[in-house]
Write the C-alpha cells for this entry.
Amino acid sequence: MPSHPRPFATHRADLDALAADNRRRALIPRAGVDFASNDYLGLAGSDVLREALAAGIARGLPAGSGGSRLLRGNHEEHEAVETHAARHYGHEAALFFSTGFAANAALFATLPQRGDLIVYDRLIHASAHDGMKLGRAERAAAAHNDPQSFDDTIAAWRTAGGTGTPWIAVESLYSMDGDRAPLADLAAVADRHDAILVVDEAHATGVYGTAGAGLAHGLARRDNLITLHTCGKALGAEGALLCGPQIARDFIVNRGRPFIFSTAPSPLMAWLVRQALEIVATQPERQAHLQSLVRYAETRLAALGLPASGTQILPVVIGDNARTMRIAGALQDAGFDVRGIRPPTVAQGTARLRIAITLNVGERDIDAMADTLAAAMAAA
C-alpha cells in the first residue's frame, strides 16, 4: 500500500522551519511595564471606561447582538455610534465593524470593482492585503510614502488601457516604523487621477488631530476619501469605524459579504466606543501628556544613538532575528514588556524591537527601560 504523510506532517515541518530561523511565535501572558500595547491613551483599563461600561450595563444594553445587522442584530447603539463617528471624523456616513481586520477585509473585497486598480503602500496592513485578495480589482504596490510612485503607477496603468477607478490605499501612521504618510500629497494625486483615497488611521485615531480625529482630519471633506478608525487601540475598546460617503456605506451593507454574513458587534461595545470618542474629544490633556512622553523617550533613545520616529511608535531595528529576541528577552526578564518583531511582519533583515509609548508608563519607567535596553544591546 502507498505510504501517506502523517496528519499535520507539513504543518510540523513548517513550524520546525520557523523555529530554526528564530521566527516561531507563541502566546505569552502579559507581564511587566507596558511598552508593547497599542493602548496609547491608557484607556483600556481606566476607571473612566469602566464607569462608562457600568453605565451601559445599568441601561440594560445587551452584551450580544443576536444576529447579523441585516437580521435582528441591528441595535440603536450601532446606529448611534455610526452617527456620532461620521460627525466626529467629518464624513457623510460611518459603518461599525467588530474589528479593524474585518473592516479592511470588507472594504477592499467589496468597494473596488473589476477593472479598477488598487495602488497600495508596500507597508500597508496585512488585513488590507487579505481584503484585496478577496476582491476583483487589479492591485499594484507603490514605494513606501512616495506620492510620485503612486502617481507613476496610476499613469502607467492608464497608458496601458486602464479605464476603471484607481484606489490609493495607505496608513496615516505605520505600525512598525512609526512614520507618517504624506497625506496632503497623496490627496493631490487622488484628485489628479479621479482616484479614491483610503486612509487607515488605526495608529493615529485618538492620538493626533483635533479631538483625536486622526491625521486625515485635516483634509477637506471630500467624496473621494474613506478613513478607517479602529477602536481597540487609543480608544481602549473594540471594533472599527469605516467612514466615508453614504454610497460606500450603502454598497457594503448590500454587497459586503464580510459585513452581511457576520454577527453584529455587541451593542454594549458600540455604546462604549461612543463614550470613548467623547472622552478623547473632551480630554485633550491625554494627547498632550502622551506627546510629552514621546519627546522624553526620544531624547533617552537618542542618547543611545537610536533614531526618532516622531510618533509614539519607536522601532529599534536590530536586523538579526536571534539577537532581536535575546534583547527582547532581557528586557522582559527585567520587567519591561518589549516585544521582538520578525519577518514576515517586517522585511527580511529588519527584525526589531517595537517600543510603544503609552500613558501606562511615566518618565521613570522610560528611564529604567532605556538603561536596560542599553545594557541588553551591549550584551547580546
